[in-house]
Design a protein that fits this description.
The complex is a heterodimer. Chain A is mainly β. In chain A, 10% of the residues lie in helices and 63% in strands. Chain B has an 8-stranded antiparallel β-barrel with strand order 2-3-4-5-6-7-8-9. Chain B has an 8-stranded parallel barrel with strand order 10-11-15-16-17-18-19-20, surrounded by 5 helices.
Chain lengths: 214, 425
Amino acid sequence: MYSLKQTIVVFFVAALLICNVRVLAQDTAFVDAKDSLEVNVQQKGRYAFVVYAGGGWFSYVGSIGSPGLASTTSVTRAHPAGTVRIMWHPDHRLRFGIETGYTNFYTYTVQDGASSGKVNLRGIPILLVWSMALTKRLNIFAGVGSYLLTTDLNYKGNVSSTALSLGLNAAVNYVQPISPKLGIGAELKWMDATQTKDYGVSAQLMLVWKFFEW
Amino acid sequence: MKISTVLVLMVFFLTSCRKDYQAPVPDFNNWDAFAAGTKLLLPAQSRMAMEGVYAMTEGSGNFGDSVAVKWNYAISGSDTTWHLSVFCEKEVSYIICEGKRLNGDLLLNGYWRKMTGVETGIVRLTINANEGADLISGNAPIVAPGAVLIKGFYGVGQSIPASVLQLSYKRKLFNKYPFEILAHRSGGRTSDLLPASENSLEMIRKTPEFGSTGIEIDVRLTSDGIPVLYHDNTINLRETQKSGLVGPIKNYSYNQLSTFVRLVHGEKIPTLREALDAVVYQTPLHFVWLDTKYTGGSLQVVRDIQKEYLQKAAAAGRSLKIVIGLPTTDAMDEFLALPDFASAPNLCELTLEDVNKTNAEIWAPRFTLGTQNEDVAKVHAAGKQAFVWTLDVPDLVQQYLRDGHFDGILSNYPSLIAYYYYVQP
């Protein structure tokens, strides 16, 4: 769905942002932490590692495809999903980190004469993530990397087969502080295994914890 | 940088899509005169008499100054369909037509395509009775230059043909030495927007239309040990429609692949048996190169099928060569482990020493190693053949035909090889 060109655009945007971090760091709107979760703001000379752990629901948006001769009897597009993300929060606006998680993309069952079968496609994202606070509590995220996809097929025998797909995600979340180091939030995320054209939207509740700072 | 700019760029990124290139064969079945025609029954000598190098007296701006014209066939059940293929110089273009007869005239209805892009369109041609149709219907005719005129029109896309196209017979096709025009992946890559998927039965039946005399097909084993045609190691969207199945093809049984996976144009992944069945009974192809893509599994099953289909071809009166390709030392080692390897027809891509070791009938180096005329001469002296792969660039094809001494060329564009081979003086 997305070409190399668009991937390059993302890296280009990221590079531009990195080049401008010092300018961004002067933005005083992000220095004042009075009514915000401390991990969500930038304070000169302070750095932190922050973990985001979330769980919620994923809804598959892409097409299921063509299951050959067999007739599809049911398709399940909504499944539970989870996210674990560790971000480095420096003293400027742009942060980066890594993200993983788990989701079932979709499941379908088929009937082929007297035989029935079931296909389940699940994925584990392995992404480099960039993030930026738009306001004190509102953040955007963009990730590029891979999805470790696994097919579980049950039809005249069981097969579990894995493959890597290039992929990306983009998310927006809102974090409400509940202590100087903890926050809770909600996140809306686009997950896209671009190479296999598997994509969908996830809504998750999130716990945010600044577990180390210096 | 403003936040709004970042957001706009992100929206652009998430909403942009890659252009989807397609070159569908236009629907050419709406020519009333052709529909009224009768099935074309041309005796072999008439077809051969019509085949030749023609001057493109009208339409050269689109197709080039000269073309090679050749008949080929495909068999479906008890029905044989003859196609006239016109291999053109310009931008790797070709014309493929079916023939019918109407009131003594010969009608040719089909389409053209340029392989360098997505341009295609409908072609309607006629050979009038007094401009060659009578002549080529006679017994063992000798056709003089200008004696056969093929006239008509071509269009762009689905439009009704309106641009003038005219071909005039010049001379016979070049055939001073036998030469194999081998189609890669059974006819060409799916990425070249051909009307059938690579490594499919449909492509095997179609590839003679593109000028192929033989094919290279990619053989892999399913988890239950059935050899199937598939190029890549994994199931992917380059070769298949979306199915939810990912990972190596060897993880799945043939039943599972057959039920859940379709190639890009909707075909099933064929077994090696089905592919060779199509070659023997449905095409005029006389060479098959089995490119064994798997390692770690025995070649015995492929060897058994090779033997079986060589016998079937002989029983059907077909002159057919089926060779097991040996692209790597691992494949060679597995081949040498066969109890009857010395009598198993094979094609070795490795060194001349390896060619002798495997008793290969054919040596097939890659084109980047050059024409290697001295080594090719050694191979010929040993009574073997030499093929080169994979040539897709017109200048290189010309160079290898002019300066090299190979007995065949493997290409993704067999029509390109056909043009440059057949128009040689």
